[in-house]
Amino acid sequence: xxxxHLPTTESAIRAIREIAQDYRLKMTVTxxxxxxxxxxxxxxxxxxxxxxxxSLPHExxxxxxxxxxxxxxxxxxxxxxxxxxxxxxxxxxxxxxxAFLRSVYGGLAYTKSRxxxxxxxxxVPLPGDTTHKELVTLTNPSPWLLQISRKG
Length: 152
Fold this sequence. Notes:
4-stranded mixed beta sheet; 36% strand; alpha+beta
């Protein structure tokens, strides 16, 4: 099952806004538009606003207040970094961002611990057998991370 295609950063922001409304979350968005303003455009000349192909790159940072706290950094290259309660998921495809957020706020995300070698993992399942998994490196995990623990 393929997620709906989000061709632009703005379309991803609209999808995130719908999720924020569904889960009654406060949302703030910071936009950087133009090749001279986006972080991935380190080779852009000063004062340049367009990519060589004439397109206008658009990067955004979205902060969602609630439990858990989530931030999403959307890049022009069709990917995103999502941070959930200080656990960072790098290179999430932009098209998967809405399903990722629905999984987190819909109660599907969970943590799993291992005795040896010791570790706590945050696991975010998505439709279509896709799963994102990251090691929780915090010495004191948040109450939310501890609350969503699964055995086994």
